[in-house]
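If it is no trouble, might I ask you for a protein's amino acid sequence along with its backbone structure tokens?
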Amino acid sequence: MTGPAVPHLTEPGARTQGLRGLRRFTGPRPPRPETCELCGVAVPEGHRHLVETEQRALVCACTACSLLFDRPGARTGRYRAVPDRYLSDPEHQLDEGLWERLRIPVGVAFFFRNAALDRLVALYPSPAGATESELDPQTWQQVLDGGPLAALLEPDTEALLVHRWEGRSGCYLVPIDACYALVGRMRKLWQGFDGGAEARAALGAFFDDVERRARPVAAMGDRS
């Protein structure tokens, strides 16, 4: 089963991403177990993913296959293992003025570095799926590059996840597949103009889990 697609970002006007793989998170549970898309062995729930850089898609991987692409020398090949680390920046500050500069209409966005385009790409959840912000990338970099997490970000496989609520904000470095899981969950639950109570509850539970997993970022250069 194909995993959640990484957005095709080179097509003009392709702002709302029709993520083919979001069926994993939004549709009925498949009757058959999911399998590794490289060797065909069955994989458990919570298995790892690889980014297929040519098709810009996430693919399911068993433990053995994911380890093959989790070595430093494999990080520039066709497949790249999605890391499992979660980091937080306790010193992160994103006031209302900076958030308005990002022009994100909801309180959540994630940013990843597209290696092919050599720039940050900004996406946020919406009823239609993952929607790309049309803001000048230089503004994203001015807002985000000052923090330590940006320097640790692995291209294509990790994202800076920013959350703003009740006048507060948080910034985390997370696996890219976690972001697409959130997008799929929000798309499934979204109701009305603001998402509705069920979507907000799911969002809160998601960030509770991120907080539980994340460890405060260490000194610059810590890539563990």
